[in-house]
Specification:
- This protein has 145 residues and is mainly alpha-helical.
- Helices cover 63% and strands 0% of the residues.
- It has 4 helices and no strands.
- It binds zinc ion.
- Zinc ion binds next to helix 4.
């Protein structure tokens, strides 16, 4: 069954991978599955970026009144932040596709264990296993205090 996810945070739709018993983790088929998820996600994001840019251009021509312009500028900074987030995410997706190409995908960067198919489907750009991610977040909280 296709899984819906929040816009830009994760790919919208994919069919969960059914691994055969004893199937090797991150074999060609699995790598191909994730490559396809990432490519679809990238396509989605690029369309979103297009829309954001077009919206910014349209807005720029539409307001002459100063009060309108203030509202418009708020909208601008929001859209610019969105665009910035989209751009960073696109970069991350591209880096992840490179990792798949180099057959270096799906293992935790900190401890080397398998990140796991389900976790990667929810967050295909994940580079840490659940344990290391939790630990990293705890540390971040302590530092951010
Ligand atoms: Zn780990």
């Amino acid at each position: 069954m296709p899984v819906a996810a929040q816009k830009t945070e994760a790919p919208k739709k994919f069919t969960p991978y059914e691994a055969a018993p004893g199937e090797e983790y991150m074999n060609e088929k699995q790598l191909e599955h994730f490559r396809q998820i990432l490519l679809d996600w990238k396509q989605e994001l690029m369309e979103e970026v297009d829309r954001t840019v077009r919206h910014l251009q349209e807005d720029a021509n539409n307001y002459a009144d100063p009060a309108d312009r203030a509202t418009q500028e708020e909208g601008f900074s929001l859209e610019l932040r969105t665009r910035d987030r989209e751009r960073k995410l696109l970069k991350k997706i591209n880096e992840t596709i490179e990792k798949i190409d180099e057959d270096d995908y799906g293992f935790c960067e900190a401890c080397g264990v398998e990140i796991g198919i389900r976790r990667l489907e929810a967050r295909p750009t994940a580079t840490l296993c659940v344990d290391c991610k939790t630990l990293a977040e705890l540390k971040e909280k302590q530092l951010g205090g």
